[in-house]
Amino acid sequence: MKQFLLFVMMCFAVSSYAQTEFSTKFIPIAPINKAPKAEKPVDPKDIDIPPIDKPNVFKNPNPLNSNNKSVLLDDKKPISMYKTNEFINPGDAVRDKMTKGLNKTLVREGLKEDDRLLVKIDRNFGDIRTKSKYFTVKYRDYMYIDSDLIKATINNQMIGGVMELYANYGQFVVNLNDGINTFVMEAVSKGTSGGNTCEFKMYDDKGVLVRTEHWDNWDKGVKGTFVIVKE
Asked: pTM surpassing 0.85?
């Protein structure tokens, strides 16, 4: 009987302990949130962009060594309808001005012909009556020696060849037919400094000066004509 009671008491004690140990309410542990936090989007207007220096490769060939002022990308250059050249050397303007001044001085002093005043119309020097069998024509450049060239014809036949004008006189002979002879002198070229300039003198077969003439600033191809009547 005592053993039975002891057994009942032991069973009751184990049952009480088991209920106390396993009846505790289970509280789950929340998992750790390792997801990255969402960042707030950035407004592009709030970004401070520093100005960008745009090198001018026309004025400064080395874009890495630019001394130009910084400009923004939206800097707009006004559109011009006039033709410009950004490759001009600043020294060219000074050179051109000096050349223009020198040219004016040479023209004023009679050392250079003015292209703006080129003679482009043929000239008739008139008639010459003579009993001479031939004329000797002496010619020279009475202005600046700049490789002026001339040629002469008598009755459409060339006399000699193309002749260059120098400071000293050159000469050629014109044989005359009986009656009317058409004698023509032509400016074959312009000189390097302007139009063609020539002075010439005609002598008869006795060495007597018959006629002296000149032309000033003739354009290439301009002709001067004489009608020589051999009586």
From this structure: no
